Amino acid sequence: MRILHTSDWHLGHTLRDWDRADEHAAFLAWLLDTLEAEQVDALLIAGDIFDTANPSAAAQEAWYEFLVAARRRCSGLDIVVIGGNHDSAARLDAPNPLLRAVGVSLVGGLTRGTDGTVDPARAVVPIRARNGDVGFVAAVPFLRPPDLPLLDSAVGDVLIEGVRAVYRDILHRVRARASDAKHAPLIAMGHLYMATGEVSELSERRILGGNQHALPVDIFPGDIGYVALGHLHRAQRIGGLDRVRYSGSPIPLSMAEAGYAHQVAIVDMKGEGLEDVRAVLVPRRVPMMRIPATGSALLVDVVRAIRELPALEATALAYQPFLEISVRVEKPEPSLQQQIQDALKDRGVRLVRLSRVLSGNASPLADVARGRTLDELSPEQVFVERHRREHSAPPSAELVTAFGELLAHVHSVST
Hints:
Elements: E1 2-6, E2 14-15, E3 18-19, H1 21-37, E4 42-46, H2 57-73, E5 78-82, H3 89-93, H4 96-101, E6 104-107, E7 111-112, E8 118-119, E9 124-128, E10 134-139, H5 158-178, E11 186-191, E12 226-230, E13 236-238, E14 241-246, E15 263-270, E16 273-281, E17 288-291, E18 297-298, H6 299-307, E19 322-329, H7 336-344, E20 350-358, H8 379-391, H9 397-414
Parallel strand pairs: 1-4, 4-5, 5-6, 10-11, 11-12, 12-14, 17-19, 18-19, 19-20
Antiparallel strand pairs: 1-15, 2-3, 7-8, 9-10, 13-14, 15-16
Helix pairs in contact: 1-2, 6-7, 8-9
């Protein structure tokens, strides 16, 4: 049985107001080709289909068009989807009657029975290979605190043990379903934060209370042949185990992820066990650039580097490189933004971030004025000390004079 594991698409995502729809469209077209070329039996999508709980009409259209295209091109393909923390469980689950009719199993959130308890039955999903072999998936969506059983604190961390209990109940049902099938592989899905997982600097939210609730790998017993995880954007194994891994996001969702090897995982199961996992890299349609490559540079050097960029060509805006700039500021540069914008004219890049790195340590003014209240410092003293803190030097005489003139003007207007 061959499985393709992917997650964290974040359809509808924008990078500093730049739309990513064309990048997502390119990924989805590539994914359809890959599903067909690799003769995949089951597609597992481990959460965060959308970037927000209320996705745009265009993002939803891209999602449903993909599902239709996948069913048309790969008629025997099983598709199993779980909701992530960015998704609305109710919104994902709403079209389930239609999706089930076309062979898509989607678990946006766990449902509750009439007694108010979580019903794990719909999280048990059978999948079938082209040769007739059957496998069973524990399709567990992102778990919010109300999804977890109420446990006594004597059991330990109630959130971690609550998640363990949910998986235990669902896996018990999976094993029961698999008992009549010979050598059926057991597969688990989850959208959660695992202990030892490497987290992106900017674009991920830890779940279930944060790092102190990172989940241990032993919530997935050894008889689970493969665990398809979502939530972390860097593709990685967990606990050194090939069978427990994040596929990572298919496109970089922040500049901090520019160096990630974005990929999907092709998983081959042989009987009940894992035979092989290999990464298939997703082609990147939009380069991500940084000036300077590391650290920061003076404005004059940054402007020079910008002017050395290729001139604007007839490339569609959606495929122009993203650019991050970091300027080291040794003195006030009130026109910095304008100078950067002027230098970028006719350059074929899109600026997503301009950061200023101060030459000073920007320590609080209270460090200099210990034992004194703010009203004991004159505005001139505050200005001078603030400048010293940010730029490691006092302001020039001309700047102090300009500040005094501005202060005098403010006083004349207010009186």
